[in-house]
Amino acid sequence: MNVGEGVAVLDVQVESNVDSASSPGEIHVTATDIRNTDHRKHSERVQDNDYRRMGSSKVDFSTVQDQFTVEKAVEQLGFGPFQLFVMALAGIAWTVDAMEMMILSILGPALSCEWKLSGAEEAGITTVVFIGMFLFSTVWGTICDRFGRKFGLILSSLITFYFGAISAFSPSYVWLLFLRGLTGAGIAGAPQAVTIYSEFLPSKFRASCIVLVQVFWAVGACFAVLVALVVMPGLGWRYLIMICSLPLLLFSLMCKWLPESARYQVAVGKREHAVLTIEQVAKWNRKPMPLGELRPEPAESRGRLPDLFTPELRTTTCLLWLIWLVSAFAYYGMVLVTTEIYKEMDSSGDDACLAQFDGDSASCAATCHKLTPRDYMDTLWTTVAEFPGLFITLLLIDLIGRRKTMGSVFLGFSLFCICISVSIFYCHSRTWVTVLMFSARAMIVAAFQAVYVYTPEIYPTNVRALGLGCCSGLARVGATITPFVAQVLTRHNVHLALSIYIISGLAAAVCSFLLPIETKGRALQSSANPVIH
Q1: Residue 188 to residue 156: CA distance in whole angstroms
Q2: Higher pLDDT, 43 or 267
């Protein structure tokens, strides 16, 4: 029955009721029905016209319902206590993983003296961790895309804690390499904390919030140096490893309260679970739920490597892989070069020209130089550079965009590396060299954080974790190579080592400017098709 037929029938019924009425009260009710009928007739005529304009001539009004997407819900519910809670949990994961990474620059010098290690063997302690991270980065991305972000993050944290803790009891160099390699396999899942956090963030706040969560990484790096300053002189490296592993167990227990990503739940068809998650966000943020029903996403493949090389994403993926490789190569290079330079300054006298950097490597190998309390303090100062690096990213990323921010700070990193090389060549003071290393560290931190903002934004939901995992894997390739530059080549020629970092920074800057898609102000994509250029 169409609208006109319904009104005609109702009019006939009204006239029949009027004719058969026996009291004024019945006539009054019938008149009210007439007015209500006219109102419904007008409303349905307006709706019918609206739908005709959209291309539909016949509409079943009983089945027309409002629908909303996860993206719309996230934007409507905004930023509030729920996002702060998730940021705190993701931040704890970032803190403890930063501690695991920072102690690598401290273990090498300590073990080279205790176990009489060569430069290559000392570099191997760092390299094996990154090999484990490289081999398992893509694995964790696939696990998180198929079984959930929360499951992958908890599992990776437990693996990192277990193998990190028992590596403190390593009886030999080979056992240490084996156990630290498995620790690296667990650390490879840490970037998924950024994935799950970013998927709850409105586009307006996403960049600044992802940068702010990196503050926890800086806190963890600084805390690891402070723990080393207290523990290493009296207790040694075994206690340092054990203490830095314990917070991972705490985080794994706290993950009980970590929510699963609503975007992931919709992508895998768990619409009811996604609604419950969105209701939780609304309750925490004290905002009303979006009207209507949550719209299901079309079924798409998840966690497939070829999806990263669709025509829309192919160029971006290749450029990002190189950018991530250089980011980790340069970042961990600066971490390791710092302790190497200070160690050699101690052996040759303060404010010296570091003659052994330029070919006299035999004398260096014959003498063991442990890090002194002053070395730890200077290392702490350069680590504090993480904080201004974060603020540089926070200032620029929404002002000039993601691509220009990455390109600019990579150029700044190369410039400060040039200054470090010149200062060492002209025998400048230790204080001045520390200032320059502080500045170079701030620049590469800013670049790395901008990359962390850009990568989750560029990939759609069905491959976001895989995309981040693959990029993280390429970063581990760079981190695997860098110990042989920072710890081995530096002892032969510091200027050659720094030249490699300078060229790498310039290459990453070019790749950043060539990225075809700017994600500033862009909503997270649920499918690879609607990529906006």
Answers
A1: 8
A2: 267
